[in-house]
Amino acid sequence: MSIADTAHATTRPAWLALDKLGVLIALIAAAGAILPFALFRANRIVVGKPKSLLEALPSFPSGLLIGILLVGVVIALLRFPVTAKLAAGFAVLAALMIFIGQSASYLTPEGDTFARVSPGAGFWLLLFAFALLVTDALTRLRFKPLIRIAILVAVIAAIALLLWSGSWNSLSILKEYATRAPAFWAEGRTHLALAFGSVAIATVIGIPVGILCYRVKPLRAGVLNVLNIVQTIPSIALFGLLIAPLAWVAANIPGARDIGISGIGAAPALVALFAYSLLPIVSNTVVGLQSVSPAAIDAAKGMGMTGRQRLFAVELPLAFPVILTGIRIVLVQNIGLATIAALIGGGGFGVFVFQGIGQTAMDLVLLGAVPTVALAFAAAVVLDALVELTSRGSRRP
């Protein structure tokens, strides 16, 4: 290579180099562009007819979306500034959300109440590709916890605006919701009660058990081993195992049935989710207390604090970020596991998932699956931010 070529190479802008993750995003986006963007069904249970991006939208909107996708892929592929990648990712995701609603309106015949239009595999792949771009950019930018929560609120507000505007009303999942709105909110309340209720009970019981295991070392191995065994039981098997004993309790203990205890329903689901929640909370409590600096404990002793005072004023506050991490793990886990409670009459969003599977109506499956995933994601973001905030507070003098 000549000196001139070498000088030209060294002065080439850094953003012209390829981004390794961007190559993966570009490949996923290319596959998404090839696969069907939408599926058209004459009714809710027949096999869908795939529609490409060019078929699913009028010429101008399809051309505009393709242009937006190309710009997004180029920004992902090259080493542009991280803020540019974040902005491009959000812009493409917003365009996909808007145009999938327009696609449903375009493909649905006028006055046809039976037709169903749902997102195709291509849409989901494109959504995944640019969600990956946004996630990577957010990770690299390392925003402060409150900013991350603000971004989450902004995303929720944007989705709420789309729902309120009626842009998605022609999508099949919204048509399924329209006929089941009261049931959807009732099952949503049940889902939240199962997930959050089981975590609340496990927190109230698990933290004292964890403190006891920390203080009484001979007890620690036995308790953690029992909780490990419970954790290895498949969820549906544990739900089933609880039917017989709870049915006996309901039949033989006065007042048990009056407070909702029965062999099937929410009671066995709540007990099973509580049992699954104990191990992470108890083990994280033990680990958090063990990680407290001996110097902090010695300083508390030097100040004349009693054991109880040291526990509540020094050890638990310093261990709280680790304990909160266990609660975060449990909450995200239980939001997903609560879906299975529908199999034993426990209710929740799983009702729609299993009804949809039984009726081969995938849009009904999505009606239960999408809010479950959204709840788990939002809970993870909020609790991650709280863990970071409490970690900073515990490190202060």
TrEMBL record:
Record bears the keyword Transmembrane: yes
Q: Which CDD domains match?
A: TM_PBP2
Any Pfam family the entry gives: BPD_transp_1
Q: Which UniProt keywords apply?
A: Membrane, Transmembrane, Transmembrane helix, Transport
Cellular localisation: Cell membrane
Principal subcellular localization: membrane
Bilayer disposition of the protein: Multi-pass membrane protein
Q: Name the SUPFAM superfamilies on file.
A: MetI-like (SSF161098)
Q: Which InterPro entries match?
A: ABC_transp_perm/SBD, MetI-like, MetI-like_sf
| Keyword Transport attributed | yes
Q: Which PROSITE patterns match?
A: ABC_TM1 (PS50928)
- Residues in ABC transmembrane type-1 domain copies: 188-388
Could you state one GO cellular component term attached to this entry?
Answer: plasma membrane
Any one Gene Ontology biological process term? glycine betaine transport
TM segment ranges? 21-40, 60-80, 87-107, 113-134, 146-164, 192-214, 226-247, 259-279, 311-331, 337-357, 364-387
Q: Which family does it belong to?
A: Belongs to the binding-protein-dependent transport system permease family.
Its protein name is ABC transporter permease
Q: From what organism does this protein derive?
A: Devosia psychrophila
